[in-house]
Amino acid sequence: GRGYHYYFSGENISSASWYNLSCQGFQPFLELKSDGSPDSIEVLIDLKGASYSGGGNLTFRGTLEDDDYFLAKLFEGDLLMGKSPVHFAFSVKSEVNSLVGLSLEFSSTTDKQTAILLASNENVLGSMNQFSAKFNKVIAPFRVAVLQSAPEWIITEGSIEMSGYTLRRINAICYRSLGRNSNNDSSHKFSAVLGHISIKSSESSSYLPPSNSWLVETKHVKWSSGPSDGFKSLSVLITWKLKEGSGDEPRGSKNFNIYVERENEEVPGSIRTVREFLGVAQVGAFYVSDLDVHCGVLSLRFIVQVCGDDGACLELESPWLSS
């Protein structure tokens, strides 16, 4: 809900401070329990470092012995599992030898307790050997992705079928990759960042109608003198909605990222398009107030990026406005 920058899928799209509680997601517990060395790992919400999504991360830093681990409670819940698989995805940025996975705690109707580890993508076999006695099951990821725009982030995805069980708790587990030890004094330092966690069933995937099914309009366009010579100010209301008869409403969409694209004539006959992030909306409207527009801008338009909870995105374009 706030930050000193704004990131989208690991990419920095704004370096401006912001505050918008409508963008706030579920907040993790910071009542932490450590199995292993007490207080060996400090856990904090970091608003200053590079993020995966929005303005903050959950950061783990400290020291950890080779065969030790640190368990941090993140969420408690009462999520009844159905017959279809449930997919988990989480993003991690870490230093060499620092691993983060997810520990999931379930209960059955007979109060049977089951603990499952969604292992990190690195050295899965070593993780299975290390935690086979501590968890009922260790699950290897079925897919690991590296973002081209932000290769420091690793996206790990795993799938679980626990029909009839109830998910009670989600923990982050910090551990080290065995067999990759160093002889220097820094070998036990631990540093990792958890960027996001998503949970979905196969039925909950986002549905976003194609861009030609939407109507994007600019209303109440007002130009005024700018803050200094060579600038004008633009105020405008941007709205978007599905055209009548276009079919189903979008399913699973949550945020609308708003951008402005300017066409600049830097030299005669040479036009360059520049995109700038403006903000986020949760409804089908966004008001732009006193946007500075240089007189060298020939025209501009607004881009509405429709974002589903599962990462699916669609871009809508407003008509061009002449400056």
Main attributes?
2 domains, single chain, 23 strands, 5-stranded mixed β-sheet, mainly beta, 6-stranded antiparallel β-sheet, Jelly Rolls, Immunoglobulin-like, 323 residues, 1 helix, elongated
Report on this structure:
Pfam families: Ig_ENGASE1_C. InterPro entries: ENGase, ENGase_C. It comes from Punica granatum. One of its GO terms (molecular function) is mannosyl-glycoprotein endo-beta-N-acetylglucosaminidase activity. The protein has one helix at about 125-130, and strands spanning about 1-5, 5-10, 10-15, 20, 40-45, 55-65, 70-80, 85-95, 100-105, 115-120, 135-140, 145, 155-160, 165-175, 190-200, 215-225, 230-240, 255-265, 270-280, 285-295, 295-310, 315, 320. It starts with a strand and ends with a strand. The strands form six sheets. It has a six-stranded antiparallel beta sheet, with no helix packed on it. Strands 7-14-9-10-11 form a five-stranded mixed beta sheet, covered by helices on one side. Helix 1 links the parallel strand 10 and strand 11. The chain folds into two domains: about 1-200, Sandwich (Jelly Rolls), CATH 2.60.120; about 210-320, Immunoglobulins (Immunoglobulin-like, Sandwich), CATH 2.60.40. The longest helix is centred in the middle third of the chain and has 8 residues, at about 125-130. The protein contains one helix and 23 strands. The mean pLDDT is about 85. It is mainly β and about 325 residues long.
